[in-house]
Amino acid sequence: MSLRTMLGKSLGGTGQFVLGLAILAALLAGLHLAAPTPTALTPADGDAPASSGQAAASTGGTSPYRDKLADYGVCRGTDPACYNDWDLPRDDDGVVRVLVFTATGSSRHAHLGPLLPAGMNPPLTSAHVAQNAVVRWGQENGFEVDWTEDVRQLDAPAKLAPYDAVVFLSNSRTMLDDASQTALLQYVRSGGGFVAIHNTLGAMYHWPWFQGLLGGANFYDHGPHRDGQIVTTDRRDASTRDLPPRWDFRDEWYNLEPFPTGVRFVAEVDTATIGNHTGFNGHPGHAGDHPVSWCQYYDGGRAWVTTLGHDSAAWTEDSALPGAGSFEKHVVGGILSAAGARPFCR
Ligand SMILES: [Zn+2]
């Protein structure tokens, strides 16, 4: 049944049909006028770089996809005044404890291995290369590591409270429920440390607070998995202090939309070394200005984020992958600084 037929039947008669069309047009006009206007929580695509309030230590250049600074309704940026220094027991016991969380809502990276059984610290096999790496790095660098991908281990603030940092490692899409979302939010607000690695930029897209925690950024797409050279743009930070000014690595070089704002970039990929590839969903890439790692204070907590880590060889012991040693130092420094055990986001 056509619209005309429906209106004709419901209103009857030509005059009433015309009246119906007029009412419909008025309704559509009203809907248009009532369309929501962009807010701080929905950065406008394609806008020019924010000229004020941009706390990011930009590495220069311009990007066609630079987004306005969004504050997500919380205190965020590189100013330590945004940190809630509550002097909790976990801060004073002399032990750095880290929880690695690898739940996946859809796609699962090879470096995570097969799905893990429920519970805390389930048995790892040699296929769980990323989890094994963080455990090994903890042993080598003096921090304790628990691991899980069971959301019930995160379903109350008290369960996260003992940890100096939680490491979200290659999560995908929607993997948190209401209780674990609330626990994470409360944990960060209590001055907790948060680390996001690789595909976690592509998780919880529908939760604006989480997008803010990631630096106001999300994974959009990527080009081919390929070699490139990373430039350490800030060598004062714990995650970059021991790195060379430039180092070889292999990754997917995530394209980001929104582009991170309000953060301190600590490393970027030299886009002259990775070629100009459009991502698989059409993103043109970040020519000349392509951050790969950054940090910020966010809603009382500390957040350190890296897009790196796709290649399983980045996580394996005694890896032959160029830059694997630098990647290890980078992530260990990010974890320890987010945990408050090293100077953070300098
Ligand atoms: Zn990947």
| Biggest pleated sheet | 10 strands, mixed
Helix content: 10-25%
Quick check: average pLDDT? 85
Residue runs with pLDDT of under 50 for 5 or more positions: 1-63
CATH architecture: 3-Layer(aba) Sandwich
Task: Name every ligand kind in the structure.
Answer: zinc ion
Secondary-structure element series: HHEHEHEHEHEHEEEEEEEH
CATH class designation: Alpha Beta
What is the number of independent domains?
1
CATH fold call = Rossmann fold
| Helix vs. strand class | alpha/beta
Defining traits:
single chain; 346 residues; Rossmann fold; 10-stranded mixed beta sheet; two-stranded antiparallel ribbon; binds zinc ion
Tell me about this structure:
It is a single chain. With 346 residues, the protein is α/β, with parallel strands linked by helices. It has helices at residues 3-11, 14-33, 89-92, 129-141, 157-160, 178-189, 208-213, 324-338, and strands at 76-77, 97-101, 144-148, 165-169, 193-197, 219-221, 226-232, 246-251, 255-256, 264-269, 290-298, 301-306. It has one domain: 3-Layer(aba) Sandwich (Rossmann fold), CATH 3.40.50. Strands 1, 2, 3, 4, 5, 7, 8, 10, 11 and 12 form a ten-stranded mixed sheet that branches. A two-stranded antiparallel sheet has the order 6-9. Strand 11 and strand 12 (301-306) form a beta hairpin. The radius of gyration is 23 Å and the shape is globular. Bound molecules: zinc ion. Residues 109, 198-199, 252, 310 line the site of zinc ion (ZN). The site of zinc ion (ZN) has 5 residues, from loops.
